[in-house]
């Protein structure tokens, strides 16, 4: 039975982050956490996760105005035309990759 508890504990292993902050910042976080009925750790984690999700979305999502979206999709519908320099670069790349 002790083995079961130990394996359950290892399954829930979590990472740790330590922060150093000014006393005023700590007091502010404690006050804000208390308003939400959370511990300081859970308040910081929830806030950080929300901000991280927003940043990731901001950097991984492209939003276009209707006119720009139409131009983008029209460009995708056009056949691709390779200029001679691009063709040469692709051939050079293929040669180097195939020979190494």
TrEMBL record:
InterPro entries hit by this protein: Ribbon_hlx_hlx, TacA_1-like
Keyword set, alphabetical order: Toxin-antitoxin system
Family annotation (SUPFAM superfamilies): Ribbon-helix-helix (SSF47598)
A Gene Ontology biological process term: regulation of DNA-templated transcription
Family (UniProt): Belongs to the TacA antitoxin family.
Name this polypeptide is given: DUF1778 domain-containing protein
